[in-house]
Specification:
Blueprint lengths: L2 E4 L1 H9 L2 H16 L5 E4 L6 E6 L2 E8 L4 E9 L9
Parallel strand pairs: 1-5
Antiparallel strand pairs: 2-3, 3-4, 4-5
């Protein structure tokens, strides 16, 4: 079982989303406890442990630490034309 820790920035975004989207994002975080690589997950090129998961119009950016069975969710963003420019 993996531990999923969402940083304060990510938690704040999730808390501010409309209820149906918030529930969907929270369900995905629970799923990631079983398998963080399930779903639409892609490794980001700039860092070896960085990944993104697509959840509808939302993107979860996270780091995986397999030695500690830890997933750290750094950021949750709605997908726009500028979402990936800052990566």
């Amino acid at each position: 079982m993996w531990r999923v820790l969402a940083e304060a920035r990510a938690q704040k975004v999730i808390a501010r989303t409309p209820r149906p989207e918030r529930e969907r994002l929270q369900a995905v975080l629970k799923e990631m406890e079983r398998d963080p690589f399930a779903g639409d997950v892609v490794r980001l090129h700039d860092q070896p442990a960085a990944f993104r998961r697509r959840v509808g119009d939302w993107r979860l950016f996270f780091d995986v630490y397999p030695d500690n069975q830890l997933v750290r969710v750094r950021l949750v963003e709605r997908r726009t034309t500028t979402t990936y420019r800052r990566r």
